[in-house]
Amino acid sequence: MTDSKYFTTTKKGEIFELKAELNSDKKEKKKEAVKKVIASMTVGKDVSALFPDVVNCMQTDNLELKKLVYLYLMNYAKSQPDMAIMAVNTFVKDCEDPNPLIRALAVRTMGCIRVDKITEYLCEPLRKCLKDEDPYVRKTAAVCVAKLHDINAQLVEDQGFLDTLKDLISDSNPMVVANAVAALSEIAESHPNSNLLDLNPQTINKLLTALNECTEWGQIFILDCLANYTPRDDRESQSICERVTPRLSHANSAVVLSAVKVLMKFMEMLPKDLDYYGTLLKKLAPPLVTLLSAEPELQYVALRNINLIVQRRPEILKHEMKVFFVKYNDPIYVKLEKLDIMIRLASQANIAQVLAELKEYATEVDVDFVRKAVRAIGRCAIKVEQSAERCVSTLLDLIQTKVNYVVQEAIVVIKDIFRKYPNKYESVIATLCENLDSLDEPEARAAMIWIVGEYAERIDNADELLESFLEGFHDESTQVQLQLLTAIVKLFLKKPTETQELVQQVLSLATQDSDNPDLRDRGYIYWRLLSTDPVAAKEVVLAEKPLISEETDLIEPTLLEELICHIGTLASVYHKPPSAFVEGSRGVQHKRLPGSAGSGESVDSPDPASAAGVTEAPPAVIPSQGDLLGDLLNLDLTPPTATGPPPAPSSGMQLGAMDLLGGGLDSLLGGDIGGSAAMGAGFGAAPAAMPASFNAPVSGGLDDLFDLGGSVGMPMGAYSPPKTVWLPAMKAKGLEISGTFARRAGVIQMEMTLTNKAMSVMTDFAIQFNRNSFGLAPAGPLQVLTPLSPNQSIEVSLPLSTVGPVMKMEPLTNLQVAVKNNIDVFYFSCQYPISMLFVEDGKMERQVFLATWKDIPNDNESQFQIKDCHLNSDAASNKLQGSNVFTIAKRTVEGQDMLYQSTKLTNGIWVLAELRVQAGNPNYTVSLKCRAPEVSQCVFQSYEAMLKN
Amino acid sequence: MIHSLFLVNASGDIFLEKHWKSVVSRSVCDYFFEAQERATEPENVPPVIPTPHHYLISVLRHRIYFVAVIQSEVPPLFVIEFLHRVVDTFQDYFGVCTEAAIKDNVVVVYELLEEMLDNGFPLATESNILKELIKPPTILRTMVNTITGLTNVGEQLPTGQLSVVPWRRTGVKYTNNEAYFDVVEEIDAIIDKSGSTITAEIQGVIDACVKLTGMPDLTLSFMNPRLLDDVSFHPCVRFKRWEAERILSFIPPDGNFRLLSYHVSSQNLVAIPVYVKHNITFREGSSQGRFDLTLGPKQTMGKAVESVLVSSQLPRGVLNANLNPSQGTYTFDPVTKLLSWDVGKINPQKLPSLKGTMSLQAGASKPDENPTINIQFKIQQMAISGLKVNRLDMYGEKYKPFKGIKYMTKAGKFQVRT
Question: Which InterPro entries does this entry report, sorted A to Z (chain B) (predicted)?
Fold first, then answer.
């Protein structure tokens, strides 16, 4: 009595027979018939002709029969849309059934019927089910929204289902929350900028609560969603980490890896000296190790991710080398990954063990694996200098085995070792030469030829060896031909007397008898060099070679950062950015690791130079093959660095650089390229690629000149800083805004230069401020009367009032601005000097000053040094008065002038100051006292700016 | 999420397909077949295969490839874990997971797959819940259903689905209340030529068979919990309690389940229960090779080493082997070159050995690879890590259950290099 009976076909007219059975009066017979239909369907037989008959069986109380009919419907509705409508009524009725199982089943099945006509009827039942009293129905309905979105996205948006779905994130039932998150994540994937999952501390808290209680799959969805959040500060980051760490002990490896992703990302924000940071590092190792004892498929995915983790934070697994040792019956894909990680973890401490293992692997059966093992020995030699000698002798042992492919691989890596440690291991050359004849792979032949050419002076019969290769010159691959040409030229430069004939022979072979333009060109260059200036030839051909890097196959840092944010995904398995390969994810947002606590400001800083300033030097990398000089220096043997795919962010940077020079290019290229994150990342990756002078926008410099010109006329006027670029053109579709603040006749003015660097006319400008510390707000509209045509600039002065809404900003004088034009709305932030807020009636009475000074607690006093200021006290006093800092009294004690000054801010805060000036000493001391000590730092900065300007 | 699933047998035929979204043509599997052809061994098929429009993620279990088709970015581990769950469920329902069993129960399989995923999102994967929704086929039930017209689909909402203990069904009743726990440890090791341990680690699990009435709340404590380096729990285990007190406290699912898996890593000293003395040599110029292998017990705490099976992949140049076992039987397959020796129990007084000669192809040079020896064994009543359960208590119910704990150690990937 098994289901296989359903497969036994009858003689003729199977469909006909089934049709009769389906229309039978007997319930039992009907059910059997539907089962037969389903069985045929599973093996790919076309039973769509039975559609009306099967749908007729739908109206039944028998749940199994209903489910079977639903199964059938889902499969064939698409091909019979008109007939499928017949089923709608039953669905609508089932959605009202008292049994929640049937309600859920109906809403689930309806979503799977991918017929446009039906989707319209679906909306009402779905809306009800999303608010159903039974959580089982709600969670099913949540998924149904995602299904519907896949069929008709517009409908879902119009019906407001997305908002309902967002509300479900706050549902009381954890499974409902998890499914809502899953559905939203799937929808968000096709709308990368929709900001559907608006994560804020409240929602995060809800997700973390649901995380503890929902199913393993729900935990994966929630963890993946959490990973997209950027915590506000290190404390929040730590508290999330604390709540996520228990997930590392979950039996489901996908939960573990998703938890690892969240922790790896949020860890970036924790200060390294924190105890918790160390604890977290320790907690990460065991679960990663445990993943490696799972089934090979799981191991493979885990290993690909561990490869990333090891590059980012080698300290996590540095003591776990042994778990990566290869078992002889591991699948080949696991073996190769383990080997790669072993080399990354190799260090002086464990190199002996690693080498012994690698030697063992080199005698295995699998050719690919053996080759990689031999190569790995070479990489160890290059990475750990102390082990180089042992590695070389291991390689020599392997060459003695005379196994053809082992010998060839060994020679390729020995060449790299020669490059890294010149003049150390050349004694082995004789052994290598013995194997000359067995080399049949181009890479190995080329390596051998390189060695012979490079050490021609020590090899007595170098000319004979090279000559032997020359016989079959035209049958060789290009790589070998180029190498042979260079090697013979080197030989000639080293032993000119005996090899003249040889060099002429190779030059003529390369230039006259070859079709390969590279080979010909190189031949001609050598020829001309040799014939015109042999000394120069020597300098070029025998020049010192750049060092080769220690780490090979390193993933480029920005890509690595992005991949760390994508741990556990396909991107992490392929080590490619998600935008590179997942179909349908148009314009994926680049994810970046959050900055660590206290390391500089946000990347939105309007001055790109400051972003470039904080980056570290990138690890030295071998010059790429494109380098002409490198090419002539015979670097065409591919160095061990197999450079990864070109990372997207760095191309973003190049465009950015172009933009700073040429302007407006990005609007041609489709606007915002990569955004500020990519920009910052680009700078981080390769600062050397962008000369420093590009960092300061060219137009900014010009503005400075104009600004200086302007301020000459009013020497005693209020201090106003030079204009800086607030909004670079590449972030605002061609609109560049630079500006400054000034106080004129008691009115604060925001002075801006708007430049149109796009190709089209800009109109309809407007401006708004976010709430800020001192309630700054535009006192009138932004006066840009004429449209701004391309490459035109306009100066605008915007009077500001201080009666706007107040919110404390960090830093205090930060101002967030939104500027709108006919193209889009742009946001930037800038800082105003606090001296703009110093009001004209800031002069305190002497008595009041004294009393206030005493009154303010000493805790509120802060002292600063102003260095290199060459004004005497009177000049300083005058200068400050121009900016509404009033000197109330002056005392002279032992040649030191003490100026007592008062200032009042627009919001009524008084700042009292004592400025000490010693004749002949360029360093001033300022003591500030204020009831609101937060402002002291800003006031001091403006003191310095005012005095030095 | 998961789009479709194809089941492929060893000869490369698709024998079942299931689509959770739109139908994906089975031609997508051609990319899988290509990879299958390229692989030297069935298990060498890469688990993730890209195709122009989809990704194929596959696992190989019971000689069946479970190939999942996905279209968008999905965590691959999520898919692999899910596929494992499918395999486990089939095994649970049909006793074995074979092509024949799946074909015999194709409708149940279809119902199960439909219940396990909705639109590619996992729906019900807990065996307790699934069994409430779809009753496993038994001969008796099939008979009864045919006679009474009942179905094997549950009519009720599975109770556990939304409770705080989704893994346990309510209203469980037994006349004999019993709870058995098996501590099973597998030792993975690589031993080098000279007999010293290169790496050794222990993977342990505690499998439980709990048949208890009502809603029992159990606690299980160890004598030496600090041994465990890394633990992965069944969702029923209260993590806070473990963190604070190193006690396993849980309301168990009904029936068989894996309570805990743990890992004792190479940082700790791992006892190696057997040793191998070997001498496998080939001489240059001779068409004969010597083979000499002796096994002996080591660090077994006095327990017997049983079910010992030695296997080794001999070099390709070996034509035949003429060996003499002191106990048990050996076979040598001249095609695959696989030597396997079924030793049985090791008697410490009379150590088992296998000696003799191997014949090589005449005139061929001596093989350059050294065969690795793979050893399987079992030791009853002992956990090699030394882990010991201290006590098991039950709260929340009045009756007294039968309790039992069994220990066993097995070889996992235990390899000796020569």
Answer: Adaptor_comp_med_subunit, AP2_Mu_C_sf, AP_mu_sigma_su, Clathrin_mu, Clathrin_mu_CS, Longin-like_dom_sf, MHD
Prediction ipTM score: 0.86
The whole-angstrom separation of Cα A665 and Cα A730 is 9
A760 φ/ψ sector (left φ>0, alpha ψ -120 to 50, else beta):
beta
pLDDT greater than 70 at residue A596: no
A246 touching chain B per CB within 8 A? yes
Q: The dihedral of CA A525, A531, A533, A537: what is its sign?
A: positive
Q: Does the beta-carbon distance from B103 to A220 stay under 8 Å?
A: no
For residues B73 and A227, give the distance between their C-alpha atoms in angstroms, rounded to a whole number.
Answer: 15
B138 touches chain A (CB under 8 A): no
Contacts of A205-211 with C-beta under 8 Å, sequence gap 24+, read A206/A169, A206/A170, A206/A177, A207/A169, A207/A177, A207/A181, A208/A240, A208/A243, A208/A244, A209/A174, A210/A174, A210/A177, A210/A178, A211/A174, A211/A243, A211/A244, A211/A247
Which pLDDT value is given to residue A688? 36
CB B315 within 8 A of CB B369: yes
Q: Tell me the DSSP string of A252-306.
A: -HHHHHHHHHHHHHHHTTS-TT-HHHHHHHHHHHHHHHHHTTS-HHHHHHHHHHH
Q: In this predicted model, what pLDDT tens digit does every residue of A103-156 receive, in sequence order?
A: 888 888 888 887 777 778 888 889 999 999 888 899 899 999 988 888 888 888
User: Which residues of B fall within a CB distance of 8 Å from A115?
Assistant: none
φ/ψ bin of A197: left (φ > 0), alpha (ψ from -120 to 50), beta (otherwise): beta
**A186 to B161: CB separation less than 8 angstroms, yes or no:** no
What is the pTM assigned to this prediction? Answer: 0.70
Q: Shortest Cα distance from B401 to chain A (angstroms)?
A: 27
Per-state percent for chain B, helix, strand, coil, to nearest 5: 20, 45, 35
Rounded distance between C-alpha atoms, residue A910 and residue A877, angstroms = 18
Nearest to B80 among A111, A297, A356 (CB): A297
In degrees rounded to 5, what are phi and psi of residue A441?
-95, 140
Across the interface, whether the CB atoms of A42 and B81 are under 8 A apart is answered no
Cβ contact, residue pair B166, A215, below 8 Å? yes
Are A297 and B18 in contact (CB < 8 Å)? no
CB-based contact B81 A331, cutoff 8 Å: no
Contact between B265 and A108 using a beta-carbon 8 Å cutoff: no
Cα distance between residue B21 and residue B290, in whole Å: 61
Structure tokens belonging to residue B219: 């606690």
Chain A contact set for B84 (CB, 8 A): 295
